[in-house]
Structure prediction request, 365 residues.
Amino acid sequence: MTGAPILVGFINTGQGGLSFPEVRVAADAASSYVNTHDGVNGRPIELISCSTTGAPESAGKCANDLIAKKVSVAVLGVELGADAVLKPLKEAGIPIFGVSSSGTTLASDPSVTFTTPPASLTWNGFWKVMRQAGARKPIMIGVDAGPAYKKILDTTVVPSAKAAGLDLSYTLNNPASPDFAAAVTAAKEKGADAIYFSGAEGDCTNGIKTARQLGWNKPIFAGSCTQFIKTLGSQAEGVYTQQYLLPANSRDTAPKGKQAQIDLYVKHMTAAGATDKIDSFATYGFADIMTLTDVLKGVNGKITAATVKSALATYKGDVFLGAPVDCSARPLPKESCGSSIVSLKVLPGGKQKVLTGGFLDITKG
Prediction:
């Protein structure tokens, strides 16, 4: 490659009680793949990563650091303090992109491009899956990630569940010392008929393990977690997950067109020495960079923050490990441009089965 590097900022919560360092590892692996396969029309990507604690001030500092380094685009991995990056990056004219939406203000800003579905539609799709599993009185057990997270639960998640006919309640653990035994016991006492564990990979694993030890035999949902499957073995059987991206362990039942992408992801995570992180939130970091590369290849002329912003706003293509999107025709005005999720269930032996045969368009019924 002979062209100058394209500076790409990458912000991800990689520190603290609720963190996702595996997402950064995967983004690095994808960048290495891109740069050994002609880059972006002959130009390499230079990934400038910034790890946050998930606190707004930490995310804001990362945003300002990336502005100072003159990146052409800021990519979000899994960032808990995401709303704090909007003002500085927007004022600097730097576009924001991610295959996983973050924040409330950020996710509803038309200048931002996320390829996941809008939050309201995503939850509607999830409630549909939950009802099909027989749940009517579920409880969400999560980690207290601060006031902004609780606001999302109170203003978006709980009302959405109630509108779908579910009597949803939630309990939040101290991230420094989560007490899953107390939470599961309380769920039993409240007469809950399903548990939804929300959090990082370790939270899903410890929560499911505790529930099984306490004899919970009703449906368990584990959000987008996957690492628990390998760790817990038979205790993971029957657990439901909901994904925007196909996990590696769903390859056998994944749409044929996506199996090659799963193979590529597994191959290059293995080459990066990250085999233990393949079945985790790492898919988001890998898909971030692979999808952004596709966007950048479609830029007409010089790659600048302005031309990247235009390309993102009009992007119509295939999200790596995900469903096709058309960001020029968003399902809800000013919000994320995706419209699909996939529902899975853990089978004996540790693989996940795609329950819908492919991606489910949650804008339809």
In short: DSSP finds eleven helices and 15 strands in the chain. The chain has a mean pLDDT of 93.
